[in-house]
Design goal:
Helices cover about 30% and strands about 20% of the residues. It has eleven helices and 15 strands. It has a three-stranded mixed sheet. The longest helix has 21 residues. The chain starts with 7 loop residues before the first strand and ends in a 5-residue tail after the last helix.
Length: about 350
């Protein structure tokens, strides 16, 4: 299993999708649907885009777990990577969310599926920090490099550095915090709209880090493991070129297939030279999702990667000793045992 590229992903099929008014204040990437378009039409178009992404990933040999969500009060539930992340070694993290109407996107059935199908050792839940006004929106707020163990994080309302420190201590990452702003000086709301880290290549809008010294430090950390950095412009970031994710699939003959999943809009914004660099290490799988992108996120935001070891498809055979124990009569509980004791004289 690749440390960076998961072979399995979780997608949420949000039946009542719409751009979330509660997140529009600090998400400069959000936009409204076309004038006169009904909410039902917007939701229907977005649903078709979600299904197209799931189909494209399955076609590429990625294992896709899809959960439906009919709740109209969760317009952003299509973006599960903000409340959930999984990590090699069997740990799952659950995160505190900035917008109050996003906090009930967290789903017990998703966690139960992970425990049933993968080797989950522990769930670390930071969501109890929400009443204190402390937020860290998962792999939206952080872009993780599991090879160099660095958590790249742009400061924002959605990325509190105190809980970031706790995460990094718990998961053995080094925090690398920086300011990132657009041409108008507006802070970037999520780090994963300006940065994607793959195994051999990274897409990063370094020029959106105004501090030259910090920008150079980020560049150095990205390249220390031998990665090639594709530097994105702010215009390309606006087209969601930074919101991509490396995944591992399979060719029909079983050979490993590494891909960079992104939107068609993001792919169209890249130059031929940038595409050539990316395709030296992985193919690009692009899906058209213009309606979902109205909510201010793209393909990366739609995918929660599963970096866990799968459980065996068949139950292990019982040894003779275990079978012998299993054949023993059930042990009495405390009440039954007490009733069998002789009465005292």
């Amino acid at each position: 299993m690749s440390a960076v590229a998961p072979q399995s992903v979780i997608l949420i099929r949000a039946l009542r999708f719409r751009p979330n008014p509660a997140t529009a204040a600090d998400n400069a990437f959000q936009a409204e649907p076309r004038a006169g378009e009904s909410p039902e039409t917007t939701a229907s178009k977005a649903l078709a885009e979600m299904d197209a992404l799931a189909d494209a990933l399955r076609e590429a040999g990625v294992s896709v777990h899809v959960f439906e969500d009919e709740d109209h009060t969760r317009p952003d539930s299509v973006f599960p990577n903000n409340w959930l992340s999984t990590h090699a070694g069997g740990t799952v993290a659950v995160y505190p969310m900035y917008a109050s109407n996003r906090r009930h996107e967290r789903r017990a059935d998703v966690l139960e599926m992970l425990k049933a199908n993968y080797r989950v050792q522990a769930i670390v839940d930071y969501s109890g920090l929400e009443p204190d006004g402390i937020f860290l929106e998962g792999t939206g707020a952080m872009v993780l490099d599991p090879i160099s163990r660095v958590a790249y994080t742009a400061r924002s309302h959605r990325a509190d550095t105190n809980v970031l420190e706790r995460f990094c201590t718990d998961f053995n990452y080094e925090p690398m915090v920086f300011d990132a702003v657009d041409a108008d000086g507006v802070p970037v709301y999520h780090t994963n709209v300006i940065a994607t880290i793959g195994t051999d290549v990274a897409l990063f809008a370094l020029d959106m880090i105004p501090d030259e010294r910090r920008r150079a430090e980020v560049r150095d950390r990205l390249t220390v493991s031998g990665r090639t950095v594709v530097e994105l412009s702010e215009r390309q970031v606006r087209e969601f070129a930074g919101n991509a994710v490396e995944l591992a699939g399979r060719w029909p003959d079983g050979r490993r297939r590494t891909m960079m999943a992104m939107s068609a809009r993001a792919r169209a914004s890249l130059s031929d030279a940038q595409v050539a660099i990316i395709e030296q290490s992985c193919e690009i799988v692009a899906v058209d999702i213009p309606t979902v992108e109205l909510a201010g996120g793209s393909v990366r935001c739609m995918i929660a990667g599963v970096h866990l070891d799968p459980r065996p498809s068949q139950a292990p055979e019982l040894t003779d000793a275990v079978e012998a124990i299993a054949d023993e009569p059930e042990t009495m509980d405390g009440v039954e045992a007490a009733s069998e004791l002789p009465l005292s004289a």
